[in-house]
Amino acid sequence: MKVALCQINSSGDIDSNLALVEENVRTAAAEGARLIVFPEATMHAFGAGPLTGSAARFGWFTTAIQSLVDDLSVAVVCGCFRPEEGERVYNTALIARPNEEPLLYDKTHLYDAFGFAESDTVAPGENVVTFDWEGITFGVAICFDIRFPALFKKMARAGAQAIIVPTSWTPGEQKVYHWRLLSRARALDSATFILATDQAFLDDGRTDPVGVGYSSVIDPLGQVVAELEQDEGILYAELDTTAVEKARQSLPVLGAD
């Protein structure tokens, strides 16, 4: 399967972000991509205004993405925010497939680290999500989740052959190193492909999670299949799940803990 990782810079303008998604989806679909992945916070960037306001438009945004997916017969995974019962929101990965009800994964491990407190505005999720698309089973994690290997093993044991990680990684000392290292480590932990999709680097002085780039596809033995640098762009790669079978035969890590 050909996949596309869209390394973009989202903003606080939801309409502009939707237009950016549509442009990238149409470009990737024309190149033959069957699964198209966008970063965390694609719907509305961190540090660009209250998240509750954007979450109120989640239904509208979802309908627009689903219409696009139905039109082009591709699958899209996209970072959004949706309302929570209280005053916070959920940090959600929207999973849209043609002519099916969207699936939602809510970020489990919130980014309360390095001086940032995501839990002030975001409620944690509790669900583990896997889904099938054109013969491959995918799992989904979001950003800070990548520091917690148990989640990745859980998805792999549930059948995931590739795990999608939409991200809006905070810049800072050693943060690019962490991002690239953790992507490879989680591939090895779970013997799956990792589709690590970050926002492009935006050097505007914000301390919010705005992205460092370096989106990548990692194979089940931790090798980098393809990687972008810091600028906006679309990364393409082919997933061959026989690599997952071979990795799990030679490196049987899922039965131990």
Counted by DSSP, the helix tally is 6
The helix/strand order is: EHEHHEEEEEEEEHEHEEEEH
- CA(first)-CA(last) distance: 31 Å
Strand content: 25-35%
Relevant terms:
6-stranded mixed β-sheet; alpha/beta; 257 residues; globular; 7-stranded mixed β-sheet; 15 strands
Q: Would you mind describing this structure in some detail?
A:
- By secondary structure, the protein is an alpha/beta fold.
- Helix content is 28%, strand content 27%.
- It has 6 helices and 15 strands.
- The protein has helices spanning 14-30, 51-55, 58-72, 149-157, 175-190, 242-250; strands at 2-7, 35-37, 75-83, 89-96, 103-106, 112-113, 116-117, 122-123, 130-133, 136-140, 162-167, 193-198, 216-218, 224-227, 233-238.
- Helix 1 (14-30) packs parallel to helix 3.
- 48% of the residues are buried.
- The model has no long low-confidence stretch (mean pLDDT 96).
- This is Hydrolase, carbon-nitrogen family.
Structure summarized in a few sentences:
With 257 residues, the protein is α/β, with parallel strands linked by helices.
Secondary-structure blueprint:
Blueprint: E1 2-7, H1 14-30, E2 35-37, H2 51-55, H3 58-72, E3 75-83, E4 89-96, E5 103-106, E6 112-113, E7 116-117, E8 122-123, E9 130-133, E10 136-140, H4 149-157, E11 162-167, H5 175-190, E12 193-198, E13 216-218, E14 224-227, E15 233-238, H6 242-250
Parallel strand pairs: 1-2, 2-3, 4-8, 10-11, 11-12
Antiparallel strand pairs: 1-15, 3-4, 4-5, 6-7, 9-10, 12-13, 13-14
Helix pairs in contact: 1-3, 4-5
